[in-house]
Specification:
mainly beta; 36% strand
């Protein structure tokens, strides 16, 4: 039903989930990147190391660690929960919770500016076997507010075996979010819940979300979700929805239906996705070395694709990890100009000039909701007239000065895809 709600004043924010164009099909192999593949021979090596030196905002876990739950709970105490309501909505802290392959019995609540990343080659390599596993609860127990402010968080690349009884007769993985809270490349072995009921007159409102490259063995219950987009996934069955539930390339999706009536729900279903490139992701091998995986574009696709078919795997010897406590626009652009990919670690980067992608197939990937703020009214990312560039996993934010554009993609004189 129709409703209105109020929100506290917000800084202008653009969430960049994935921007991708064409890229050459390159066989996947864990070899150092040839800089010439990004445009020219690298004449300014930066002495990068693998494994990289992650800042404190990246928490790296293995399943034998004994302090995982305590560290997760400490993050959530500042960035999540509803005591107070929408706790952490405007904090400065950002976190990436990285999990090496293994089985974890911990429960992982996901609050604001927090990303959960499995580091396996397959989602099934990182297993959360706890009752709740990875989950996101409503931001307010008042159903009219509910999850409407549950923005700016994400989870990817793991298997959930959650069986928590969230309310009477309802169990599974809970992901009660609204916009800018994507879930990708996940295998849910049980049910999946996209909303939460905490008692009272109605389920907590939730408004919009995104799921891709995800397989749900059981039922997906969208409940009070007003709008949701699922792409290139597999589901057993789908239940409920309020206004606008959209599927492209989803095996098991319900048939299209206009309006909520006659026991049916408002679904728009398209059998295949015309063109897409999945978001780049990070993995680790048995020796503790990190890799940036760049999926190839595909056309007319459906279902999950967890193998890197035709994509590229790049050693972190050729990936510059940017740290907001030490890096500037100049230092990051030095790495980009030298032909490196860039991974932005969790944090807020005050940029007085734009980061510039200048080579075909170059990647800027944020982890932990890395945030790029325009310090001088400038764009924060500019992509030259190149093909195959990827910008993903970032929050782009206006600063104290009027800003006409945050992301400039091409000049209009070339493809810039």
């Amino acid at each position: 039903r129709a409703f209105s709600h109020s929100m506290p004043p917000m800084r202008p924010v653009l969430a960049v989930a994935l921007v991708a164009g064409s890229a050459s099909a390159v066989a996947a192999s864990k070899l150092p990147l040839k800089k010439s593949s990004l445009g020219s021979a690298n004449e300014a090596p930066l002495g990068l190391s693998n494994p990289p030196s992650w800042p404190a905002s990246v928490l790296l876990f293995e399943d034998s660690d004994t302090d995982i739950q305590a560290k997760i709970d400490a993050v959530y105490a500042t960035n999540g929960g509803y005591d107070p309501v929408n706790n952490g909505q405007f904090v400065d802290s950002r976190y990436a919770l990285m999990f090496k392959p293994g089985t974890y019995t911990v429960d992982v609540p996901v609050g604001y500016y927090t990303q959960v990343l499995g580091l396996g080659d397959s989602p099934d390599d990182v297993v959360f076997s706890g009752s709740k596993g990875v989950y996101c609860e409503t931001g307010s127990p008042d159903f009219a507010t509910g999850s409407l402010n549950n923005f700016w968080r994400s989870a990817e690349n793991f298997r959930s075996e959650a069986i928590e009884p969230w309310w009477s007769g309802v169990t599974g993985m809970l992901w009660a979010v609204s916009q800018a809270s994507p879930i990708r490349r996940v295998h849910v072995a049980t049910q999946m819940l996209l909303y939460e009921y905490v008692g009272g007159d109605a389920a907590c409102f939730a408004s919009g979300g995104f799921m891709a490259n995800t397989k749900v063995d059981g039922q997906v219950a969208s409940g009070s979700q007003q709008q949701w987009y699922t792409r290139n996934s597999e589901v057993s069955t789908w239940m409920d929805g309020v206004w606008n539930i959209v599927f492209t390339g989803v095996l098991g999706a319900p048939a299209s239906h206009c309006a909520s009536e006659d026991g049916q729900y408002p679904y728009t279903t398209i059998d295949t996705t015309p063109q897409v490139a999945e978001k780049p992701y990070v993995t680790i091998d048995d020796a503790g070395l990190f890799y940036l995986n760049i999926p190839a574009p595909k056309t007319d696709s459906s279902g999950v694709e967890w193998d890197l078919v035709g994509g590229e795997t790049v050693s972190f010897d050729s990936v510059y990890v940017a740290d907001n406590t030490t890096d500037t626009a100049d230092s990051i652009n030095l790495a980009l100009a030298a032909g490196y990919h860039v991974v932005m670690a969790p944090g807020i980067f005050q940029l007085d000039s734009p980061l510039q992608i200048v080579y075909d197939n170059q990647v800027i990937l944020g982890v932990g909701l890395a945030t790029l703020v325009s310090a001088n009214g400038n764009a924060v990312v500019e992509v030259a007239d190149v093909d195959g560039a990827r910008v993903a996993g970032l929050l782009l934010e206006a600063g104290p000065y009027e800003t006409e554009v945050l992301l400039q993609w091409g000049t209009g004189s070339g493809y810039g895809g």
